[in-house]
Amino acid sequence: MASSHGSYGTRLYLCGPENLTHFKRMLFRDWLRAHPDDTAEYAALKRKLAAEATGDWKFYTGGEPDFVARIVQQASA
């Protein structure tokens, strides 16, 4: 993926274990670990977004929320 922004480097996200966002991220992670079909779908989405984003980080990350929300909802049920 060509980028006019250069490297974004390492991204570090910190929050306490009681944080709702942290809890949702762990639900998402654990769901994907246990559901290979959803993992493959997520990988395909990420590849598609990377190809279409042409270095636009907001576009790339903006294409994920619906997928992530659906998985978190399933994992929470």
Question: What is the topology?
Answer:
Blueprint: H1 20-34, H2 36-53, H3 57-62, H4 65-76
Keywords: Plasmid
Pfam families: GrpB (PF04229)
Protein name: GrpB family protein
At a glance:
Keywords: Plasmid. This protein is mainly alpha-helical. The protein has 4 helices and no strands.
Task: Give a structural overview.
The chain is mostly helical. It has one domain. The chain is built from four helices and no strands. The chain has helices at residues 20-34, 36-53, 57-62, 65-76. Helix 1 crosses helix 2 and helix 1 packs across helix 4. The model has no long low-confidence stretch (mean pLDDT 88).
| Structural domains: how many | 1
Structural class: mainly alpha
Continuous helix count: 4
Number of strands: 0
- Biggest sheet statistics: none
Instruction: Name the overall outline.
Output: globular
Distance between the termini: 36 Å
What is the H-and-E element order? HHHH
- What fraction of the residues are assigned to beta strands by DSSP? under 5%
Q: Keywords, please?
A:
mainly alpha, 77 residues
